[in-house]
Amino acid sequence: MDISCDVAVIGGGFSGASTALLLKRKNPALKILVVEKSAEFDRKVGESTTEVSSCFLTRVLGLSTYLGHCHLAKQGLRMWFADSPEQPFEECVEMGARYNSRLSGFQVDRSLLDAHLLGLAAEAGCEVLRPAKLTGVHLGGAGKNTLEIGGKAVSAKWVIDASGRAAVIARAKNLYRPLTEHPINAIWGRFSGVKDWDGAPLRERFPSYAGACRTSRAWATNHLMGYGWWCWIIPLRGGDYSLGLVYDSRLFTPPRGDSLAGRLQEHFRSHPVGRELLGDARLVGNDVRAYSALPYFSEEIAGDGWGIVGDAAGFLDPLYSPGLDFCAFTARGIQGLVERSLAGEDISAAARIYNERFLFCYHSWFDAIYRDKYYYMGDAELMAAAFLLDVSSYHLGPVRQVFRDPETEFSQFPFQGFPGRIAAVCLRFYNARLSALARRKRAAGCYGDRNANWRLLVGGFAPDVSAVRTFFRGLGRWLRAEIRNLGLSVPAPVRAPEREPAAAS
Ligand SMILES: Cc1cc2nc3c(=O)[nH]c(=O)nc-3n(C[C@H](O)[C@H](O)[C@H](O)COP(=O)(O)OP(=O)(O)OC[C@H]3O[C@@H](n4cnc5c(N)ncnc54)[C@H](O)[C@@H]3O)c2cc1C
Known about the structure:
Blueprint: E1 3-10, H1 14-26, E2 32-35, H2 51-60, H3 64-70, E3 72-73, E4 77-81, E5 93-97, E6 106-107, H4 110-124, E7 127-129, E8 134-138, E9 145-149, E10 152-161, H5 168-172, E11 176-178, E12 184-192, H6 200-205, H7 207-212, E13 221-226, E14 229-235, E15 241-248, H8 260-268, H9 272-278, E16 282-291, E17 296-298, E18 302-303, E19 306-308, E20 314-315, H10 323-342, H11 348-370, H12 380-404, H13 406-409, H14 417-444, E21 455-458, H15 465-484, H16 486-489
Parallel strand pairs: 1-2, 1-10, 2-7, 4-13, 5-21, 10-19
Antiparallel strand pairs: 3-6, 4-5, 8-9, 9-10, 11-17, 12-15, 12-16, 13-14, 14-15, 17-20, 18-19
Bound molecules: flavin-adenine dinucleotide.
């Protein structure tokens, strides 16, 4: 063998660098090799962090100061609804926080964050091979794995796959499964020339817009919402914005056109908020991409001498930005299994349980939050209920979990245990009801009938009793939507088919 190591990590992005760093900090004697195929990271998606991924970045990795200096402090998430492209800007429905966020969040430039994390792993003593591509892997069990990297043979006691959507282990072991029930796709790019959400021109032209909100809208992740699609508007340090469209191909087709950027811009202009804020936006360089069939998962993410972290383990949906949450949970979970195995413990039973919990969490998260959500995400009445219920459940569940003890709680997946199962059933139920209501509203021609002239501005979200109150507010909105649309569930009276006039004899 040309190189031998205790742990080989394939991919040096967020998940690979974090896992290597965590392992090295706790076990300085381990020989850890990180293999990264790119010479430099480019800007990628995964720019908006949540309370959970921010907890991982600040409390587990200890990056508060770095993030404060080099990225932007995020001010929550905000959604905008319209009932037609011509609707005046100030009549669009707005949902979000009224005040600054209670917990830290960041808008990150991933080309900088990933490079910083990989640099920290190298400083801690990990060996980084870059640019170097994994071209072959033979998983022979703990202590007997061999890899081919840029013509070199590497032996590794453990192999950790952090290769993102390349998902090298899941594909090599035939564990990779697309989530075909959720056919979503994305187009995105980086743009300059986005208007200032908080600047004097907009504030002067739209006084009710200016007066309604006490925090900065510009530092939020703003979402434009529609039937079968949503768009993100994420500010980046220095003035560029990340703009993207995610759509369910059962319900929506983006505008056609020669260039991805042109199609994206045309779509943004079809929403009054997009037209006002992004009307003069210009693509930065050639920084535009598209992915189809976004969600997938690996049937197993841990085995004898191998583990999978981050996007290589699976991906669901970018709405609410849970991508880096999964990266954090899997990085910590696999770290624990590797440490126990290298200490001589037989982890086969633990790996089996870990795989079961991962699959349960992945599918519960899908059913609870995303299944058929694209049917109702353009209807403000229904999304208001979901917004309050989803965000408060998130604070009562995963956010409370990780803040309770960041050091240990990232090794547990959300929805674990009896309370987790009950939560999964409740969330799945209201999500399915809202989706059913949307289909009925659509069939009756009243979809989006409350998409004008109101705002839902919440005091703030925190993992405490205030989230319980917000949850009940969400329940109230859901029940009101059920009652208001009750008439739609009564089948229309069946009218006798009109008879053909009797043929003249
Ligand atoms: C449209 C969209 C929007 C998103 N928005 C958000 C968001 O706002 N917030 C959020 O939290 N998440 C978001 N996500 C998810 C987020 O982007 C991912 O969860 C995150 O980037 C995954 O990081 P990772 O390190 O696992 O994988 P990656 O960042 O993909 O890193 C994988 C690394 O492996 C390297 N690699 C691959 N193959 C090899 C090989 N054979 N040899 C060596 N190296 C290799 C690659 O070069 C790369 O550096 C979004 C995802 C999508 C699709």
